[in-house]
Automatic annotation (TrEMBL):
Protein name: FUSC family protein
Region annotation (Disordered) ranges: 595-618
Membrane topology: Multi-pass membrane protein
Domain Integral membrane bound transporter: 411-533
Keyword terms, alphabetized: Membrane, Transmembrane, Transmembrane helix
Species the sequence originates in: Streptomyces albiaxialis
Keyword Metal-binding: no
Superkingdom: Bacteria
Transmembrane spans: 30-47, 78-98, 104-121, 128-147, 153-172, 444-464, 493-515, 521-541
InterPro entries xref list: Memb_transporter_dom (IPR049453)
Classification via Pfam families: FUSC_2
Compartment(s): Membrane
Primary residence: membrane
Length: 716
């Protein structure tokens, strides 16, 4: 965690970050498809209705298109339909209540609160819900009757139907994002293997595997259509991770840092990386796997057993098996240039499980997949998320209260201002506000700068061209197409395109460009200032919560390590699912810690005696080492017929209460005591033979990491 920043420096850094332009992979065909959806809706509305209907329907298609560009693994047509349905409902209710200021303000407050709470479900839900509130504030200002309100709502919903239909009729690289995510996971493991060749203690970044797991959750309909190459590789990448680490580690694997054993280890790691990279390339491009001949020659079992022995040999055999499985799992032709491959060899691993040239001989299993709930099934999940966040200490609840108050106050403020488009004040505030400080202030600066550029360019074009409804509609489609294309490059560019889009769109209804442009600039600035001021007055700082995040990570790491030692203690009763779930919890806790630290670095508040920069850095390093030690042990889980380990049972029994007590101590800034863990380790050492077993070596590494953690968080 960086040195606490004063307000001026924090504002400067968030402003620079908000105005930065990022490199992004552009998707012109997808952007063109979204722009065509807006064009179809506007054209139909202009042909059969009025300019006001065209404007409201265009906002529906616009919002649906934005929803499909959000980072989400749910089917894109579903996102478009859900966004349009929510906007149609909110717009219709807005039309019904717009005549009564008090009733409409109450509606805005409730809708904004629910939009804020939607962040508890996920970022995509939060962004789409906020967009619905913002667009509703525009569409309800268009004059209409009750029947007209129904027409407006229907056309907004039609915008979502059109966008969804275009996605279904004109798919662009179907499954492409999932292919990329899975390929990134395999490439990340390959990179880990290469780094281990030179640094046996190299850290492993679990982020690509976390993303791959999220992408792997699919609906039953998607499961029936999923390409063959997307089956099984994620779980295989997970199995590579501990085997690679264990093979490279000189303590657990046992291969010295110099000599023929280390040379063999480096060869195996390099060949495995080559196979993983080739497999990742094949998955990304949807083509056959092409493996260099040299890698296949290395990944053969040497005659006579080779130079490796003990745990290192066991890890090498598992690595060879996994690389063969990685090629076979593609279910595509594998291209190799070598000839005269030796016939499959069969041997017995140290687990007593028979394998043929790396392929476990087992009955074929039915393909399984991670289930993604439907939108209807998401309702109880959303309700549980709401209940979970209904506590005053929750940043999500504080965000919801903040958005609700600012949207209501912004609407009332906009009504008192002279311009006729005062709704841009609450609209900007709703779109700028986020649950954390850095993103709120980044977006506030970016939105003002982007709006200034966007309305300036759009106003200039309107002044020069003097367009009518159809030309204005064409310019609006171009602006929204650019926004879809450049959405990943930064919020400032997105805001510029959105500002131009609104100017052109309102030009369809006959609004003067000068009024629209100049009013939008200073009203946007007012809304942005209101949003940033509200966060300063009613914040939800991340910095004071760092100790809690650290304790959560320690607790999850502890469960992961205990689950592994339990498998050594009683192999016959081992529960692989328990180990897997503990690993996922540990990753989620680490990810939450990383996000909290990133947010805290931008905050202009001190740690208030909770956790200093040095303590945070040292504790993070200790917990990464603790997780790595547990990962190494995962590569050596014994078979069910292995002998139980009394030392592992004793160590796990001592570790469980010690971790629970340490979690409380970390939260309360109290000293951490690992004396019982040290005593259990000494007893295990006393009864162990020579060389010590893998479990004991791992326990020693784990205990060192726990000592480092205790030193890092010791109250000063």
């Amino acid at each position: 965690m960086a040195t606490p920043l004063p307000w001026l420096r924090a504002l400067k850094e968030t402003a620079v970050s908000g105005l930065s332009v990022e490199r992004a992979s552009l998707t012109p065909l997808i952007a063109l498809r979204g722009a065509c959806g807006v064009a179809v809706v506007i054209g139909v509305a202009l042909a059969v209705g009025s300019p006001e209907l065209a404007v409201s329907s265009a906002f529906g298609a616009f919002a649906s298109g934005v929803a499909t560009f959000q980072r989400s693994w749910r089917p894109r047509p579903v996102l478009a339909l859900a966004a349009a349905a929510g906007l149609a409902l909110s717009t219709f209710l807005g039309y019904l209540l717009i005549g009564s200021t008090s009733a409409f303000v109450l509606l805005v407050a409730v809708w904004a609160f629910l939009a804020g709470m939607a962040w508890g479900i996920g970022p995509t839900s939060g962004v789409v819900a906020a967009l619905n509130v913002a667009v509703m504030l525009i569409t309800v200002t268009l004059p209409t009757t009750l029947l007209g309100a129904l027409s407006h709502a229907g056309l907004i919903a039609l915008g979502g139907v059109v966008q969804a239909g275009l996605i279904v009729l004109f798919p662009v690289r179907p499954w492409g994002e999932r292919r990329d995510t899975l390929a990134d996971a395999l490439a990340g493991v390959a990179d880990y293997a290469r780094r281990l060749r030179h640094d046996p203690m190299a850290p492993f970044d679990p982020e690509p595997l976390i993303e791959a797991r999220s992408a792997a959750a699919i609906t039953p309909r998607q499961a029936r259509r999923r390409p063959r190459q997307l089956h099984g590789y994620r779980a295989m990448a997970e199995r590579f991770r501990p085997v690679l680490g264990s093979l490279a580690d000189p303590v657990v694997g046992g291969a010295p840092l110099e000599g023929p054993e280390r040379t063999r280890v480096r060869e195996l790691l390099g060949a495995a990386a080559t196979v993983l990279d080739a497999t990742a390339r094949a998955i990304r491009r949807g083509e056959r796997v092409r493996i260099p001949e040299e890698a296949l020659e290395i990944l053969q079992v040497p005659e006579g057993g080779g130079v490796l022995s003990g745990p290192a040999r066991k890890a090498a055999l598992r690595l060879i098996a996994l690389t063969d499985d990685a090629v076979e799992a593609a279910q595509e032709p594998v291209e190799v240039s070598r000839t005269g491959l030796r016939p499959r060899e069969t041997w017995q691993t140290l687990d007593g499980e028979w394998e043929g040239h790396g392929f476990p001989v087992s009955k074929p299993q039915r393909p399984r997949h991670l289930h993604r709930p439907s939108l209807a099934a998401m309702v109880p999940i959303a309700l549980r998320a709401f209940r979970r966040e209904l506590r005053w200490s929750s940043p999500i609840l504080r965000h919801a209260v903040r958005v609700s108050a600012v949207a209501s106050a912004g609407y009332l403020l906009g009504k008192t201002l002279p311009p006729a488009h005062g709704y841009w004040v609450p609209l900007t505030a709703v779109m700028v506000l986020r649950p954390d400080f850095s993103r709120t202030y980044e977006r506030g600066v970016a939105r003002f700068a982007g709006t200034l550029v966007g309305v300036g360019v759009a106003g200039g074009l309107m002044a020069v061209l003097g367009p009518g409804p159809y030309l204005s509609a064409g310019l609006a489609v171009v602006a929204v197409g650019l926004m879809y294309l450049l959405m990943g490059t930064g919020y400032a560019i997105t805001s510029a395109c959105t500002g131009a889009y609104v100017v052109f769109l309102l030009g369809i209804a006959g609004t003067l460009w000068s009024q629209t442009a100049f009013e939008r600039v200073w009203l946007t600035a007012t809304g942005g200032v209101l949003a940033m001021l509200s966060y300063a007055l009613f914040p939800a700082w991340e910095t004071p919560l760092l100790r809690d995040r650290l304790a959560d990570w320690l607790e999850a790491n502890g469960r992961y390590a205990i689950a592994l030692f339990d498998t050594l203690a009683d192999p016959a009763e081992r529960a692989p699912r328990q180990v897997r779930e503990a690993l996922l919890d540990a990753r989620a806790a680490r990810q939450e810690w990383d996000q909290s630290v990133s947010r805290a670095e931008a905050e202009p508040v001190r740690h208030r005696g909770r956790l200093s920069q040095r303590s945070a850095t040292g504790a993070q390093s200790a917990l990464v080492t603790m997780g790595r030690a547990a990962m190494l042990l995962e590569a050596h889980i014994p078979g069910r017929d292995a002998e139980p380990s009394r030392g592992a049972a004793d160590f796990a029994a001592a570790l469980a209460p010690a971790v629970a007590a340490a979690v409380t101590a970390v939260r309360e800034s109290e000293p951490v005591d690992w004396s019982e863990v040290h005593a259990a380790l000494e007893r295990w050492n006393a009864r162990a033979g020579d060389p010590p077993p893998v479990g004991l070596r791992t326990a020693d590494l784990l205990t060192d990491a726990l000592d480092d953690l205790a030193e890092a968080v010791e109250p000063k």
